[in-house]
Amino acid sequence: MNGKNNFLYAPNEDESEKASNSYILSLIALITGFPIPLFNLVAAIIFYLGNKKGTYFVRWHCMQVLLAHVITFVINLIVVVWVLGVLFWNFNLTNNFIAFIITAAVFNLIEFIATIYTAIKTRKGLHISWLVIGPLTDLFVKE
C-alpha cells in the first residue's frame, strides 16, 4: 500500500466519504456473502456503476475495490468448486488442495485488513494505492 497522494487536489469531505464507502461496502458484501463469491463481485460492480460519473478520486477508489473483487472472485470461485468437488464428486484431497485453501485464506485475510486500513485512510482524504491492484486501476481510470 502506498499512501502517496497522486491527485493534484485534496478531495473534499463528500469525495472522501464516497471513496471510503466503496471499501466499507466491500467489507459488508464480504461478510454477508462470504460463501457465495459472486455476491461480493456484483455488489462492487453496482457501487462502481453508481459512482462512475463521480470525481476522479471516487472513481479511482471504486475501481480499485472492483478490481480487488474480480481477483478475489476468481480465487474464491476456485475454492468453492474445488471444495464441492472433494465433497460430492470424489476429487482427491491432495496437498495442492490444502495449499490452495491456505493461500486463499491468507489472501482473503490480507484483503480484509487492507480494506479496513484503506477505508480509514481514504475517509481522511488520503490516496492509498494497493501494491498490484493500484497500477491496474491507473490503467482503467483516467482523469
Keywords:
about 140 residues, mainly alpha, about 75% helix
What does this structure look like?
With 143 residues, this protein is mostly helical. It has one domain (13-140). Helix content is 73%, strand content 0%. The chain contains five helices and no strands. α1 (13-32) runs parallel beside α3 (56-88) and α3 (56-88) runs antiparallel to α4. The two termini are 21 Å apart. The mean pLDDT is 86.
Number of domains: 1
Q: Looking at the structure, what is the overall shape?
A: elongated
Helicity level:
over 70%
Low-confidence stretches: none
Using only CA atoms, what is the Rg?
Answer: 17 Å
H/E series, N to C?
Answer: HHHHH
Largest sheet: none
Distance between the termini: 21 Å
Task: Please provide the count of β strands.
Answer: 0
Oligomer: single chain
Helical element count? 5
Secondary-structure class = mainly alpha
Mean pLDDT: 86
SS strand fraction:
under 5%
Summarize it.
Helix content is 73%, strand content 0%. It is built from five helices and no strands.
Reconstruct the topology from this structure.
Blueprint (H helix, E strand, L loop, with lengths): L12 H20 L4 H15 L4 H33 L6 H29 L9 H8 L3
